[in-house]
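REQUEST
  id: r-88c1
  op: predict_structure
  target: UDP-N-acetylmuramoylalanine--D-glutamate ligase
  payload:
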Amino acid sequence: MKKITDYQHKKILVLGLAKSGIAAATLLHELGAFVTVNDQKPFEENPAAQGLLEKGITVICGSHPPELLNEGFELIVKNPGIPYTNPLVSKALEMDIPIITEIELAYRVSEADIIGITGSNGKTTTTTLIFKMLEEASKHPMIAGNIGTVASDVAMEASSENKMVVELSSFQLMGVDQFRPHIAVITNVYEAHLDYHQTKENYARAKANITVNQTMDDFLIVNADQEELLELVSFSKAAFIPFSTKRYIERGVSIKEGKIIYFGEEVIDIEEILLPGKHNQENILAAIAAVKLLGVGNDAIKNVLTSFQGVEHRTQFISNINGRKFYNDSKATNILATKSALEAFQAPVVLLAGGLDRGNGFFELVPYLSGVKALILFGETADKLEEAGKEAGIQSIYHVDNVEEAVPLSFKVSEPGDVVLLSPACASWDQYKTFEVRGNIFVQAVHKLKESQ
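RESPONSE
  id: r-88c1
  status: 200
  body:
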């Protein structure tokens, strides 16, 4: 870790705890800042705040009072989940107090080069693939960000021999100042998180922040199949590495005659890869581009791609029960992700879907439901999804109370050779704390089902 003095004796407010807030407060305290932590949860119910108080950090809990800003803070480190419309945050903006997220701290103290990955879909799989390929090639990677450990915790341990592979959300990237990854990856940009960003333009600009500080010594890997994305990052000074699943790119990464080609060099035959789906081909191309820039050979890449079966909760194969293959795609919290999952399978699909109602309809999903033989629905959006299912001509549509009930029903209405796919097309928060909880309940129900057969 770099021993920087940027924060020494500065009054800094860490707004919101969770893992990133705890890490930021701890790091700033170690760097000599006068840290105050403000968290919504009451102190007596907040073991994280209690632990920070024991370290000598000032802790204020129970609400986010705007009058707290009268104490003369020079910087705010904001939890990414707290919107900029929050009254305290809005007042800070009016007072011109700089606001950053924890990823900015990680960058400033990291001795390791950073590979940053963002995008609407596929960033977790891409991040994991890059990490595994670097690991296979003995490049000493460390994984951080939205996946794994908080970035500033990892940065505190990383040396110049390491490579930090960091998954980045739009929320995190809104709060960067100097952040500059040596290699930046944007998998794709679609409409998402409008409840936070208000407009797609705001969301897209946040994603583009990954390259805003890059120089000609850095690299930007970007999906060349999205013209809108190419225009979005046209300002970047980084060396441009395009990837495409739709056309051959001589100076980039693409597919030609069933093989992945990197700058004219054959890397691997598509048929050898375990991960299903065209959306995963995009992730694979992006990952190959990143690791090739770091000197990883084809053998290491092949070893990963011929053994890796997927990231947890992302089109993750769970089990084969009497000829039915069960897949957990609980991370599909939007329509686009479910479209991609459905496109990955040729076999008849029993689709388990539903969740938080964000006010949108699901008729754009209709063309992708042609291979769905039965719909099993739950959550707030069940009725809306039923409308889309009927529009697609699906005859077998069922309603259940939750994911756990959906699993045994899916077995009853399916046949050998079918795919049972949990791909909700919705966030989980109407019934489950996180998509991970939803996915884990699905996985447990599948294992319970298997034991009963």
